[in-house]
Design brief:
The complex is a heterodimer of chains A (about 220) and B (about 200). Chain A has about 220 residues and is mostly helical. In chain A, about 60% of the residues lie in helices and about 0% in strands. Chain A contains 9 helices and 2 strands, in the order αααααααββαα. Chain A is globular and about 65 Å long. Chain B contains 9 helices and no strands. The two termini of chain B are about 15 Å apart. In chain B, α3 runs antiparallel to α8, α4 crosses α7 and α7 packs antiparallel against α8. Classes of the chains: A mainly alpha (about 220), B mainly alpha (about 200).
Chain lengths: ~220, ~200
């Protein structure tokens, strides 16, 4: 495709392109504002390590799939675009799954079916439908990376809170000093359980909307 | 028979897809504004899960998993195609949803109109793919057990979405802090519902 060349007119990191990355991390965050891709946030954030691996996997899948769909955008017949998108995403997810199984087997066991569920992660489908189908590869790539980073940021925040309060560790390293336990500090076991992830995201939304009142849901 | 009932009850309450595994959250949050629409989506999910889980069970056991191709002859006994799982399952789900949509449109236009836009949405509902992947992970003994698991998961999803929709309809009359309105409070309520459902945990059937 020749569209790539039109980037010459515009610097690679123009103001508009930077916005593509920074907006989804803050004001247009896919999780707290657009409510997409919630499923995996809740199930795999018991510890920081799987959250980090998941965030990186999603960044990779989303960046690449956005570029691929953007390159193909003029050749995909509109009627079958969903199948084409799913096929592209599914192939990339298979690659990620195989890499994880080979390189990080313990984390891959921990993530269990949630690596496969990246396929139906609505953020990816949503961005392919909403952005990559109508834009050139480079902005699409940035958009993909930006949205996946917004997703990853929430993932890491929830993973951080849950591991710190639930087990007193971070990345499997003890961070809460031992003398606190001696004087009666107890890990909050509730944070290990999945419902606390929901409540943690709820509180993150609360904080974000308190700081930025224009995001408040009027209904 | 007893085993089938056990699997059904277990997948409705103990392993509830929404409140224990948080699958299908996107549509769960987006469509739960009123009870009426959530009932429609709930039925569509039960329907699609009841169809796709057994089909994927057959595909997994006779085509994909290790040694599944043995019926083709001894040469194929060692073939392992399980790395294709994701792409095959999602293709089956997407095409089944399309097929179900066409059949319903033909047989019962009223049902079609009431399910309407929800059917195509279901193809990208993580609960559907998730249930198939759980089915694969748990190695059910036969197709009847897989079907019972699929239907049970669907009913569990239905109960959860109708429950949250009813709560959201009532909460409109409460004085929720402004930044929590809408999405925030829904997350917290779902968390509380999840804690309530955890009381089913540890029940051995």
């Amino acid at each position: 495709m020749s569209e790539n060349t039109s980037n010459q007119k515009e610097p690679l990191f123009s103001y508009r392109n930077k916005k593509l990355i920074s907006n989804p991390i803050g004001k247009e965050n896919p999780i707290t504002i657009q409510v997409l891709g919630i499923c995996s946030v809740l199930a795999i954030t018991v510890q920081l390590r799987p959250s980090l691996v998941m965030a990186i996997s999603v960044v990779a899948v989303m960046g690449i799939s956005n570029v691929v769909i953007s390159l193909l955008r003029n050749t995909i017949p509109p009627r079958i675009r969903i199948i084409v998108q799913l096929t592209v995403i599914a192939s990339l997810v298979i690659i990620v799954d195989q890499v994880l199984k080979a390189a990080l087997y313990d984390v891959s066991r921990q993530l269990s079916i949630f690596v496969g569920l990246i396929i139906t992660n609505c953020i990816i489908m949503g961005r392919l439908e909403g952005f990559a189908l109508y834009n050139k590869p480079w902005p699409s790539f940035l958009d993909g990376i930006g949205n996946a980073s917004g997703y990853g940021a929430i993932l890491l925040a929830v993973g951080f809170i849950r591991e710190l309060f639930g087990s007193g560790t971070l990345m499997n390293q003890q961070v809460i000093p031992g003398f606190l336990y001696d004087i009666g500090y107890v890990n909050n076991g509730l944070f290990i359980l999945p419902p606390m992830a929901m409540i943690a995201v709820g509180v993150i939304i609360w904080v974000q909307r308190t700081r930025d009142p224009e995001l408040v849901d009027a209904s | 028979m007893e085993e089938l009932v056990n699997i059904f009850v277990k997948s409705v309450f103990i392993d509830n897809l929404v409140l224990a595994y948080y699958l299908g959250m996107c549509s769960y949050l987006a469509v739960s504004r009123t009870v009426q629409t959530s009932v429609g989506l709930g039925f569509a999910v039960i329907f699609v899960l009841g169809i796709t889980v057994p089909i994927n069970y057959l595909i997994d056991n006779y085509l994909l998993s290790r040694g599944a191709l043995a019926w083709l002859g001894p040469r194929f006994a060692e073939v392992d195609l399980s790395f294709l799982t994701f792409i095959v399952f999602i293709a089956i789900i997407a095409s089944m949803v399309q097929l179900v949509e066409m059949i319903i449109e033909k047989i019962s236009p009223t049902l079609y109109n009431s399910l309407g836009i929800f059917l195509p949405l279901i193809a990208v509902n993580c609960a559907i793919l998730g249930a198939s992947l759980f089915m694969q992970e748990r190695n059910y003994a036969n197709i009847a057990e897989a079907t019972s698991f699929g239907l049970g998961s669907g009913v569990g999803w239905f109960l959860a979405i109708v429950g949250i929709a009813a709560i959201r309809e009532k909460i409109r009359y409460s004085n929720v802090p402004a930044p929590l309105r809408g999405l925030g409070i829904t997350f917290i309520i779902t968390g509380l519902m999840g804690i309530a459902f955890m009381s089913f945990m540890g029940i051995e059937l």
